[in-house]
Amino acid sequence: MTTRIPLIAGNWKMYKNVSESVQTADRLKELAGGVTGVEVMIAPTFPALFPVSKALQGSLISVGAQNMHWEKEGAYTGEISAAMLVAAGCRYVIIGHSERREYFGESDETVNEKIAAAVQTQLIPIMCIGESEKQREAGETFSVLDKQLKMGLKGLFADALQNLVIAYEPIWAIGTGKTATSEQAQEVHLFLRSKLTEMQGESLAKGIRILYGGSVKPQNIAELMAMPDIDGALVGGASLDAETFSKIVHYQSK
Ligand code: 13P
Hints:
Blueprint: E1 7-11, H1 18-32, E2 39-43, H2 46-55, E3 61-65, H3 82-87, E4 92-95, H4 98-103, H5 108-120, E5 124-129, H6 133-137, H7 141-152, E6 165-168, H8 182-200, H9 202-207, E7 209-213, H10 221-225, E8 232-235, H11 242-249
Parallel strand pairs: 1-2, 1-8, 2-3, 3-4, 4-5, 5-6, 6-7, 7-8
The structure holds 1,3-dihydroxyacetonephosphate.
């Protein structure tokens, strides 16, 4: 039987300067630095990656970036490569977040390029997919997700995708306080795993962690995590406060 170690990841988006980030990381290290049975990751802003990864040394908490470029280096003003993220202490990178797709022109094609570059550099991609409210209401949820999944992983196969993480983040649930019910999320996660099985084979699909994201809080995490295909969470707002995020991380001890 494949066991998937749950991953609780905090996406700090464009919040916290360097000293605020280090302060929060220090506190999180005290509260959750030695937690076992669940992996923990935080994704601060670019300037805070290196200092936060230093602050977290000696703990089990990993660091991730919120974006990257697919080229190794070059004249790409404002961009950063996978290898640079690894050198700054990153183990993970969030790719294709809906905010990047909506505000910064990220497409399934760029997501695909970035995932290919991340896995080549041993950086673990967390590929974000999700439908808008309009798409859900029009009954297009599954077709939208199918397309995002297929295009995002185009040309990539089992060997490269051993560590891939998928984050299902329904856009209507991000920062709105509206969480998908655990049943709604489970239905989608099961669909995604069956698509991954078709595309990549059962043994890979069984090992891929599928996170849920969208208004995850200490109050709803246990119910979400009780679902068989929900393997963790990508947390926005509630990850900014170390105490609150630590409660989410310790969902099993409630
Ligand atoms: P919230 O938890 O604030 O809804 O954000 C979710 C998210 O976008 C995580 O990437």
